[in-house]
Amino acid sequence: MRIGRREIAMDNNFVVTFARGFGSGGKEIASKLAHELGINCYENRILTLASQLSGLDEEVFKAVDEKVRTNGGFSNFLRGLPKARGYITRNEKFVSDDTLFEYQKKIIENLADTESCCIVGKCADYILRGRTNVVSIYVEAPRSFCVERTIEHMGVTEEVAAATIKNTDKFRADYYEYYTHGNYWTNPVNYDMTINSARVGIDDSVKLIKEYLKIKGFI
């Protein structure tokens, strides 16, 4: 049964974080789960908003921050930003930006305080660690499965797909290690559940996570 947005009490909000290997279908699983639960799914819009906020001078940011707190959170800002269409690849080397990360952290913490949602990437599992209203999922699959999906979704050759997966996963691993102070991205201890999407399937992965949310008493 679909759960509408208004049926989830704000004082009982929960967050499902997703880490995922490139091409594994993790983002699709997160989006489908959010759609079925009637909640928001956030990924690139967090980075977009954080980038905008980090470019403001201190006085302007204080005004924005006051507006955010007065109006209940960052949700309205995020929903006004466009979602990514297609895959977001990372073929460049990771370069740290501590200021930008702090803005992302602030947004993620505010979301966890104010609404039920899914958050993809951005070290959300680490940022929200220890919170009782958070479920963290890691989605991975064999390289052949990821290559096939990448070819299908990006329309590239097998060689380009393999290189994109390798480079993007390296970026994500370096990003996670830096901002978690030495933890590693694929460590299963970081997560409530690790799913092999090639074996479980996209739709059944959604069903599996929903069953776990029921066990936890969130839905």
From TrEMBL:
Q: Please name the Pfam families in this protein's record.
A: Cytidylate_kin2
| Species for this entry | [Bacteroides] pectinophilus ATCC 43243
- Please identify the protein, giving its name as recorded: Cytidylate kinase
Enumerate the InterPro entries for this protein. P-loop_NTPase (IPR027417)
Source superkingdom: Bacteria
